[in-house]
Amino acid sequence: MPFSFLAKAKPTNNIDNLSSTVMAFCSTFCPRIPTNFRVKPISSFPSNSPFCLSFKVYSSQATDASSQDKFTGRVGFLGLGIMGSPMAQNLIKAGCDVTVWNRTKSKCDPLISLGAKHGSSPEEVAANCDVTFAMLADPESAIDVACGKNGAVSGMGPGKGYVDVSTVDVATAKLINGHIKATGALFLEAPVSGSKKPAEDGQLIFLTAGDRALYDSVASLLDILGKSRFYLGEVGNGAAMKLVVNMIMGSMMASFSEGLLLSKKVGLNPNVLVEVVSQGAISAPMYSVKGPSMVKSLYPTAFPLKHQQKDLRLALGLAESVSQSTPIAAAANELYKVAKSYGLSDEDFSAVIEALKAKSHNTA
């Protein structure tokens, strides 16, 4: 029996203060928050912060009763890479009826062993499921899996929903939305802020936009996969928010890399720099998590460098579309491009520091 999304539609209650929302995303690497604390407001700054800002950010979980309604339909999951695989696994462990697909079939096998079904194509998965999630590497892949030959669109129809959690540009999100909606199905873009560990721990942050009825219907699924979710209105807003967040993150990592190398070059201990930074006003979990490994020239992949560079490129395109100057992000993007040219694409994005090391050696 098809799962009805429209029956669960609730009044729209958008988050108006997007500047406050961005503050909630500064960390991709936050530790797991106990379930009993998830419904409480989270301050954007620690209590001992030297800044006198008093506003707070609330996740949609704090006020949305739909999170109490368990999704009972069949769930499809397309794309089982570094993010998609642990996300699908968490849905299976939570007892969901999950059907998976990936271009490389072998990546489906561990999930099948946990109880997942296998679909031979995105079309077959979408046809047999009530809601289908997609986590693809880039806009081209997202479009192909949704709209290409044997794509998900061919299996969509009234009563079904498509949730694209890939990081894409605004134009791609709107293109996929148009194709999905033309079938009578519902569409939700829901890119995530988070990397491998938050995906494994169910601690992602969802930046959603699109059909509110679908958002309300899959709320319990998003709560399995993440620690918070934000509904941002019309399609394109989710993609834009994700690109802004990752633009900031990429620039922060480039600057942090410069600081680590400079501290060492002037005779300071870079490990001490990591400790100093972690206790000051510019503290971010990203620095304390990545810093020690970076000092050892180790870059275990949580967020591939090639994806960070892709997101910076897309963010720069977004900025260009509204004539917004982004000189810092543009400079960071060039650094990530250099790192890619050194064969570091599949290393963690913190490996961008190697591009700076190379430049230093070339000018020595």
UniProtKB/TrEMBL annotation:
Chain ranges of the 6-phosphogluconate dehydrogenase NADP-binding domain? 74-233
> What highest taxon heads this organism's lineage?
Eukaryota
Q: What is the lineage of its organism?
A: Eukaryota, Viridiplantae, Streptophyta, Embryophyta, Tracheophyta
Q: Name one Pfam family in it.
A: NAD_binding_11
Q: Which InterPro entries match?
A: 3-OH-isobutyrate_DH-rel_CS, 6-PGluconate_DH-like_C_sf, 6PGD_dom2, 6PGDH_NADP-bd, HIBADH-like_NADP-bd, HIBADH-related_NP60_sf, NAD(P)-bd_dom_sf
The protein in question is named Glyoxylate/succinic semialdehyde reductase 2, chloroplastic
Coiled coil ranges (UniProt) are none
Native organism is Hibiscus sabdariffa (roselle)
Looking up SUPFAM superfamilies in the UniProt record yields: 6-phosphogluconate dehydrogenase C-terminal domain-like (SSF48179), NAD(P)-binding Rossmann-fold domains (SSF51735)
Q: Locate the 3-hydroxyisobutyrate dehydrogenase-like NAD-binding domain: which residues?
A: 236-355
Q: Give the family, as the similarity comment puts it.
A: Belongs to the HIBADH-related family. NP60 subfamily.
